[in-house]
Design goal:
Keywords: Membrane, Transmembrane, Transmembrane helix
Number of helices: 30
Strand content: under 5%
InterPro entries: DUF1800
Protein name: DUF1800 domain-containing protein
Pfam families: DUF1800
Organism: Micromonospora sicca
Radius of gyration: 27 Å
Length: 680
């Protein structure tokens, strides 16, 4: 379960790398060490996968986030093949993810002695594989929270993350204001032209502004002009082909982050030199992501990168992230963000970052760790409502044994791979070989099956609809997106085109609230902050002004509670408003807007508040209209305008100069605190 599956984390600062470099390449050498321990690089507190726990002498145990099962677990009756049935057996509940099973008839008792080993079991400890059958029906496990044989969602001990928040009173209120029904048009522009906005909202119903708010990290004058110039269809086609969009100056300046393009091997080899320069690879990756969100012209691509970083989430900061997470961002998420999700899921499951993050490097046929197998089902494919059971999790975990990391690269260890029949959801395979090429191919076939499963199509569709359309997307839209996903075998661009060609998207003006990170990025974008340092500012000997400034933005996002790839658990950040309703966070965001208006972060260049409007009108009311158009790209209502004028203490007809009689910063900050800037 995602909320329990938290890899241990170390405190971070700017002093450099303080983590061990995985002397055993992330794999706990159980044959020689006989225990999980700090030497492997994890060393977490009791209950984490890295807690020091003695292994039994023989046989198999199931390993989850709480470590090995309790000693003294009752043995399976008699010999025979592994027992992974779903028939609940009283007295065998040992806590979620602590299922203790006997593989091949090895009866595990207190102290770890093996009372019986049949020929199949002896095959686990020699070179020649002996096939088992993980679909047997003798013994089972289970907990009160997750009874065996039931789908997790039917127990309702927890729900999919966004859904769990939407079950609140605030969620119910949002549902009442969501548009219902919808239809598919020939293209986005046709859908925009034909779709009326019927829900209550303070946002302007201009489709150009709506598209800019949803398909980017914040509308700017340039984005709005580009959409009008290219047309809605033309702009979207351009955004869906990001390779043809030239990098901006800010993206070129990312060369000032020394670790960004280094491979895991280079990061390992250059650790000492990078340490002396104060470089932290996982934090520089976050810095670069923030820079791209603010300044890249490939905005839809960056929105999708952020989407996948929440959907197929690997935290930036875990023990190993300093070496591998940068590569995961580049070679998995960014490589497939607008491509094929089946290919992304396969690439992720072969990447050291995910294998380390969810402890797959620890999983072997005689000590099966289920973490990655569970999250592949629960979070990365079919979802908690997708129809899998605990039996499916255990068989998937057995199938995936053998995958690991050596010398900083993905490897397959044939001697650690379980051989024998498996059946997971509707996927079945004899799994009769531990030959690396054959076994790897079987695992990839299973992952492809998961990625193309109808439940995955619905889960991806609902997640995309929640990100782009509404916290409460309609069933008609989710079904339509899922159908496109299935018809195109998991390709993402057709799904996005279906979304933008659906009336539900264009009818949902004002139905999304910016999360803290999105609010901050949108503020930088709408103010027109530039990546060059203010005149006279000097950096330090370790980082350039640009690198320093990006780190300050990251630190501010940490204070607000959201930053790219920042959640430690593998479920990623929630994408619905009710998960972020914090008055303190909102005020902190407003304060940061005040800092930017004052130009206090000298690592960047800011327009002076009095120059936000090119030709400031002479009266206060007209000035507020122009300033609102510049910052939130629409006029305010009469009531809102009066409130803004009240901050300056002047009536609409009062004469003002370019500085709004020295109140322009306060007036601009008030507009940036308005619902028009918080909604997207």
């Amino acid at each position: 379960m995602a909320d329990q599956n938290v890899p241990p984390r170390r405190p971070r600062d700017d002093r450099g790398w303080d983590g061990r470099q995985h002397p055993l390449d992330g794999y706990r050498d159980l044959d020689h060490a006989g225990r999980y321990g700090p030497a492997a690089g994890y060393g977490g507190p009791a209950g984490y996968p890295g807690a020091v726990t003695t292994l039994p002498a023989h046989g198999s145990q199931w390993v989850g986030p709480d470590g090995f099962g309790r000693q003294g677990h009752a043995p399976a009756p008699g010999g025979g093949l592994p027992n992974l049935d779903d028939d609940d057996e009283p007295g065998r509940r040992t806590g979620r993810r602590r299922a203790l099973a006997a593989l091949g008839g090895a009866a595990v008792v207190a102290g770890g002695a093996a009372l019986a080993m049949n020929p199949q079991v002896r095959g686990l400890f020699r070179d020649d594989p002996v096939a088992g059958d993980a679909t047997g029906t003798v013994v089972t496990d289970g907990t009160a929270a997750r009874p065996s044989g039931q789908q997790p969602s039917t127990v309702r001990t927890y729900t999919e993350q966004n859904e769990s928040y939407m079950g609140s009173r605030a969620g119910a209120a949002l549902k009442r204001n969501s548009p219902t029904g919808g239809r598919l048009f020939d293209g986005p522009a046709a859908a925009a032209a034909a779709t009326p906005v019927t829900v209550k909202t303070v946002l302007a119903t201009d489709p150009v502004r709506h598209l800019a708010s949803r398909a980017t990290f914040g509308a700017t004058g340039k984005v709005l002009a580009d959409i009008k110039r290219l047309g809605i269809d033309g702009w979207l086609r351009r955004q869906l082909d990001p390779e043809k969009i030239a990098p901006t100056k800010a993206e070129l300046k990312l060369a000032e982050l020394p670790t960004l393009k280094l491979t895991p091997q280079q990061l390992r080899d250059q650790r000492d030199q990078l340490n002396e320069r104060g470089a932290q690879p996982e934090r520089e990756m976050i810095d670069a992501t923030i820079a791209r969100q603010i300044w890249s012209d490939r905005q839809l691509y960056e929105v999708m990168v952020d989407f996948w970083n929440d959907f197929l989430h690997v935290a930036a900061e875990f023990d190993g992230g300093e070496v591998y997470r940068n590569s995961f961002d580049r070679d998995v998420v960014r490589a497939h963000a607008l491509g094929s999700y089946p290919e992304m899921l396969i690439a992720a499951n072969r990447h050291p970052a995910l294998l380390l993050y969810l402890n797959q490097v620890d999983s072997r046929k005689d000590a099966v760790n289920e973490n990655l197998a569970r999250e592949n089902l629960e979070l990365y494919s079919v979802g908690v409502d997708g129809g899998y059971t605990e039996k499916d999790v255990r068989q998937a975990a057995m199938l995936q044994t053998g995958r690991g990391v050596a010398d900083g690269k993905y490897v397959f260890h044939p001697e650690r791979h379980y051989v024998g029949k498996v059946k997971i959801l509707g996927f079945s395979h004899p799994n009769s070989s531990n030959d690396p090429k054959v076994a790897d191919r079987v695992i990839d076939q299973y992952l492809t099956y998961l990625a193309l499963h109808p439940s995955t199509a619905r889960y991806v569709a609902r997640s995309l609809a929640t990100r782009f359309v509404s916290d409460t997307p309609s069933k008609s839209l989710v079904d339509r997106l899922a159908k496109t996903y299935a018809a195109n075998k998991g390709l993402i661009k057709p799904v996005l085109m279906t979304l933008f060609s659906s009336s539900e998207f264009w009818a949902a003006v004002g139905q999304k609230v910016r999360r803290p990170m999105e609010y901050l990025v949108a503020t930088y974008r709408t103010l027109g902050v530039r990546p060059e340092a203010s005149p006279g500012f000097q950096g330090d000997n370790r980082r350039t002004p640009y690198a320093q400034g990006l780190r300050q933005i990251q630190d501010k996002m940490r204070e607000l509670g959201q930053y790219p790839m920042g959640k430690p658990t593998p479920d990623g950040y929630a994408d619905v408003y009710v998960a972020w309703t914090s008055a303190g966070t909102m005020v902190d965001g407003w304060n940061e807007a005040g800092e930017l208006l004052g130009g206090r972060r000298k690592q960047f260049t800011y327009p002076a508040p009095e120059k936000l409007v090119a030709r400031p009108p002479a009266t206060a009311g007209a000035y507020v209209d122009e300033l609102a158009g510049r910052l939130v790209h629409q006029k305010l209502s009469a009531k809102e305008k009066a409130l803004v004028l009240g901050v300056a203490g002047v009536p609409a007809t009062a004469k003002v100069d370019a500085t709004f009689n020295r109140a322009v910063a306060a007036v601009a900050r008030t507009i940036l605190a308005s619902p028009q800037h918080h909604l997207r």
